[in-house]
Amino acid sequence: MKEIVAVLGLCGLLLAGAPHPAQGADWKMDPAGSRLEFIATFEKTPAPGVFREFDARVRFDPNKPAGGSLDVTVKVTSADMNIADVNKEIRGKDWFDYAGFPQAEFRSADLRRTEGNHYVARGTLSLKGVKQPVDVPFTWTASADGATMEGELTVKRGAFGIGTGEWAATDVIGADVQVKFKVKLRKAG
Amino acid sequence: MHDRAASRYHVGMLRNTADSWGAPAKWFHWVMAALILAQITLGVMAVSWRLSPTKIELFFWHKSTGVLILALAALRLLWRLANPAPALPSGVPAWERAAARSSHLLLYVLMIALPITGWIVNSASNIPFRIFWLIPLPAIVAPDKSTADLVALVHRGLAALLALVLVAHIGAALRHHFVKRNTVLMRMLPGAWRTP
Question: Quick check: B126 and A45 CB within 8 A?
Answer without folding.
Answer: no
